[in-house]
């Protein structure tokens, strides 16, 4: 029996569960991981033996204005859950963390080239890493090869409230292994995209904006890069960790596929607006103020989970086309979806 515990917060939609809601081996329960009494009763009643802990506040932009709520849900809620799971003697507890706990990779050596660039030339140089300088027209180029890649032993150096809360929660989870040898496993994954994702995240947000004839809003220079994994690949990674992951271990779930936010916007414009004209593509981009901190990139080494037999399989071209088509038909799965398309986080009501 698979039990899905969800608070049904602002970013949730029961429509996303319609295809499985009638399965005999599936049960949905609405509840809050921060309610310690409820969580303990749930473990006692349902006889749960394995936990995959995905529940969290995850929108980085929102974390800057609601940092205490992120701390409460992500840290306190995780402590409540792992404590109850330990009391119930579950067989395995998998905590789903993020690549952002490592902080941005800046590297230790780079070459500097200060020059004035058009947006087109910036786009062409995205095969290298680009670090914005104080002047918006000065770009620092740094070869990716000289930059640090994170493995599971790399120190945690989070730079935003979301990442900090996830890093702190990791410490609580890991402490149950160190103190009790309680069988916990921690995963840190790259950015996940695909159907069913609330459109506050960058890929569904850009897709939905363009499908509603609105411009992609890019924070700052847009030269920051992210690694993107298709949802189906990440599901396979979690199943691999569930079956083969060793207690007390951490596994990076990463991909070598990396793209700048500017390049992402332009690729989606090409696919949705069917144009390859640089000037026409610029008409669909709007540069706005950057978030307080915006890490350059999160390159990870994933050889450890590769050793368990997992590697990503879905190519970008296939995954992004499936995602675009899904949002064309299902954007209104959320009653408040339009609010997610604003350039800056619209604070949902406190619940």
UniProtKB/TrEMBL annotation:
Location of the NAD(P)-binding domain: 2-104, 147-323
Gene3D superfamilies to which the protein is assigned, alphabetical: NAD(P)-binding Rossmann-like Domain, UDP-galactose 4-epimerase, domain 1
Superkingdom of origin: Eukaryota
TM segment ranges: none
GO biological process, one term: nucleotide-sugar metabolic process
Cofactor(s), names only, from the UniProt record: NAD(+)
Molecular function via GO: dTDP-glucose 4,6-dehydratase activity
Keywords assigned by UniProt, alphabetized: Lyase, NAD
InterPro entries reported for this sequence: dTDP_Gluc_deHydtase, NAD(P)-bd_dom, NAD(P)-bd_dom_sf
UniProt KW Lyase keyword: yes
Name under which the protein is recorded: dTDP-D-glucose 4,6-dehydratase isoform X3
Taxonomic source organism: Octodon degus (Degu)
């Amino acid at each position: 029996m698979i039990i899905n515990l969800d608070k049904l917060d602002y970013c949730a939609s029961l429509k996303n569960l319609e295809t499985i809601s009638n399965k005999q081996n599936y049960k949905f329960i609405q509840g809050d991981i921060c309610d310690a009494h409820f969580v303990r009763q749930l473990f006692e009643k349902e006889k749960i033996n394995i936990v995959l802990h995905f529940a969290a506040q995850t929108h980085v932009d929102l974390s800057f204005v609601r940092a205490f709520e992120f701390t409460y849900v992500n840290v306190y809620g995780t402590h409540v859950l792992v404590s109850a799971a330990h009391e119930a003697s579950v067989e395995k507890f998998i905590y789903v963390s993020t690549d952002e706990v490592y902080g941005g990779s800046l590297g230790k050596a780079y070459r500097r080239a200060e020059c004035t660039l058009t947006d087109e030339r910036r786009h062409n140089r995205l095969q290298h890493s680009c670090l914005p300088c104080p002047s918006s027209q000065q770009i620092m180029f740094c070869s990716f090869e000289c930059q640090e890649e994170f493995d599971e032993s790399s120190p945690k150096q989070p730079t935003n409230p979301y990442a900090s809360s996830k890093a702190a929660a990791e410490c609580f989870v890991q402490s149950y292994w160190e103190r009790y040898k309680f069988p916990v496993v921690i995963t840190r994954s790259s950015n996940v995209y695909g159907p069913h994702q609330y459109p506050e995240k960058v890929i569904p947000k850009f897709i939905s904006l363009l499908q509603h004839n609105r411009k992609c809003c890019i924070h700052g220079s847009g030269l920051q890069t992210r690694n993107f994994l298709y949802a189906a690949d990440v599901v396979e990674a979690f199943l691999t960790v569930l079956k083969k992951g060793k207690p007390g271990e951490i596994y990076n779930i990463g991909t070598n596929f990396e793209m700048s936010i500017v390049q992402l916007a332009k690729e989606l414009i090409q696919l949705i607006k069917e144009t390859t004209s640089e000037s026409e593509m610029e008409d669909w981009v709007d540069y706005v103020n950057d978030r307080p901190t915006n890490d350059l990139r999160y390159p990870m080494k994933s050889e450890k989970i590769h050793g368990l037999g997992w590697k990503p399989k879905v190519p970008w071209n296939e995954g992004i086309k499936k995602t675009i088509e899904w949002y064309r038909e299902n954007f209104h799965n959320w009653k408040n979806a339009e609010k997610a398309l604003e350039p800056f986080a619209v604070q949902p009501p406190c619940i």
